[in-house]
Specification:
With about 525 residues, this protein is α/β, with parallel strands linked by helices. It contains 18 helices and 14 strands.
């Protein structure tokens, strides 16, 4: 996408320069001057060239976030040094976004108005056009996607005041006005008029959708007219919606006191919005089919799968630059970056996918840095985090995270190692560089060295073999104050199963070899070590 934008930027800049060049034979203008036009032929040429390239450019960035589109339109307008070309480009951009069928595109049109037209940096074709742009901006700016739904106080069929979407600065506890917004449900806000032909069609579609799908949502049907008798008849004949889970509220504003027109841009009906449980506008200017699609996507639980081969390869790539020197802090910073780039910006689904994948990835990694980072990930980003709130989360993430957290909490650094007696092999250094080996039953807390390495291993494990060989090398190269205790878990399970079970209860033996270091008193000084990596 970046290369495409670069090419289009160059093309757009070329068009601006070309339009300026072909216009040099006509009159030029400066900002603030009026009624100055290029000759008709040049005007047509200029207009066609600008329109085609501007549309191509905007089509190319249509899938980008709104903030990116705003930046790109600023770039495109700023490229034009000639005042008439700049005006033509800005008007094309404004027209593109006001006429766009893409939900949310009007936010860019409002931005163009506020940034360029309303302050007078670029003139519109006439004062009437400028007035229209001002009205467009004012009737859209409060109800753009991602904004908090503006508060409304409307009347129900009995004439009682009801409040929708309480504003943060509205004092709580006003008993005369009943809050009817549910903080745990999606809200459909539907503005209609009883004499609107399109509203009758939309109402029939809406009624069928709500009765067939029976979404667990609140449906606020707001009549924009003032004829109560006609309204009651319309409700009875057109909007008698019968559902078990959809709560229907019939509201209106006969005295036009709520300012719903400007707050939600209701210049014509029907007008429909979808509002998330937190009060954020997630859909605007919807029709019934679009509403149904959005609700199904929002309310259908998404089942994520974690620990795929692709996700493992992705994190291998992420951590590869750190090499063997990777530390716990490096991995923690990646986890925090994921959170700040996803959950902190409202993308809970992506946060859960990437964090869950990271948990599974770290689980399969050896080494102190990875285990330290896994412990932090579990406690800071998963356990106790309200984002993990579905049954699927409990099954695939939370339950596993609790098991991992329990394992990681066993024999932490600074604690005394459990005083278990086990049949094992004790290795010590001889004075002449050899290694003394002793078979027997040893207490883990009384291994006898200034520094002790306890290696839990299994037969046929290549990594285990590499670690035991590294331990021999360490002893042979002057390790007089070192003791190495080798515990063969396969042997224990076959001959002394009670000992094996006691060790599994006390240590994280989900992956071997597990190497723990202790001091002379039996205090744990290190876990998840690698002697082979020290060489």
């Amino acid at each position: 996408m970046a290369n495409t934008l670069q090419i289009l930027r160059i093309a757009a800049a070329f068009v601006c320069l070309y339009a300026y060049a072909v216009g040099t034979g006509g009159a030029s203008v400066r900002y603030g001057q009026e009624n100055v036009h290029y000759p008709d032929g040049l005007d047509s040429l200029r207009s066609a060239a600008v329109s085609a390239k501007v549309k191509e450019y905007l089509d190319a960035i249509a899938a980008e976030p709104v903030e990116i589109q705003k930046q790109e339109t600023d770039f495109l307008i700023g490229t034009c040094t000639d005042s008439l070309v700049r005006q033509a480009v800005a008007l094309e951009i404004y027209s593109y976004y006001t006429e766009s069928k893409v939900m949310g595109a009007e936010a860019v049109a409002v931005y163009i108005c506020d940034k360029w037209f309303i302050p007078g940096k670029i003139r519109m074709r006439s004062d009437m056009d400028l007035m229209g742009a001002r009205m467009f901006a004012e009737f859209n700016r409060r109800s753009l996607l991602g904004m908090q739904a503006p508060e409304l106080v409307l009347k129900d069929t009995l004439g009682k005041d009801c409040r929708l979407f309480r504003a943060p600065d509205t004092p709580a506890g006003n008993d005369s006005i009943r809050d009817i917004t549910s903080p745990d449900r999606y809200s459909i806000l539907y503005f209609y008029a009883t004499d609107c032909a399109q509203c009758r069609i939309e109402t029939v579609l809406l009624r069928n959708i709500l009765e067939n799908d029976d979404f667990p949502v609140n449906f606020y049907a707001v009549n924009t007219g003032r004829d109560k008798e006609g309204w009651m008849r319309y409700i009875r004949l057109q909007m008698d919606i019968k559902t078990a889970n959809t709560d229907v509220f019939h509201l209106w504003d006969p005295n036009m006191e709520s300012d719903f027109q400007i707050k939600y841009g209701i210049l014509q009906t029907p007008g429909m919005f979808l509002i998330a449980p937190d009060g954020t506008i997630t859909g605007r200017r919807l029709d019934a089919p679009a509403l149904e699609k959005m609700l199904k996507e929002a309310l259908t639980p998404v089942e994520l799968e974690y620990g795929s081969k692709e996700s493992s390869e992705f994190y291998d790539t992420v951590f590869k630059p750190f090499g063997d020197s990777i530390g716990c802090g490096d991995i923690k910073s990646v986890a925090e970056h994921i959170r700040s780039s996803t959950a902190a910006k409202g993308d809970t689904l992506l946060f859960k996918q990437m964090t869950g994948d990271l948990m599974y990835y770290l689980t399969n990694k050896r080494g102190k840095a990875y285990k330290c980072a896994l412990e932090n990930l579990l406690r800071e980003h998963i356990l106790g985090n309200p984002a993990w709130n579905t049954q699927d989360d409990s099954l695939k993430v939370i339950s596993f995270a609790r098991i991992l957290d329990d394992l990681l909490s066993k024999t932490p650094e600074g604690s005394l190692i459990p005083d278990i007696k086990v049949n094992a092999t004790l290795k010590t250094a001889c004075n002449k560089g050899g290694i003394r080996t002793k078979e027997g039953k040893f207490r883990l807390r009384k291994t006898g060295g200034k520094t002790n390495y306890i290696i839990f291993h299994t037969e046929g494990c290549p990594v285990c073999k590499a670690e035991t060989e590294a331990a021999d090398s360490l002893l042979a190269n002057g390790g007089k104050d070192i003791r190495v205790l080798l515990i063969d878990m396969d042997m224990l399970f076959s001959v002394w199963p009670d000992q094996a079970q006691a060790l599994f209860d006390a240590f994280d033996l989900t992956a071997m070899p597990l190497i723990i270091s202790t001091d002379r008193r039996g205090t744990v000084t290190g876990r998840y070590l690698s002697l082979a990596e020290r060489e």
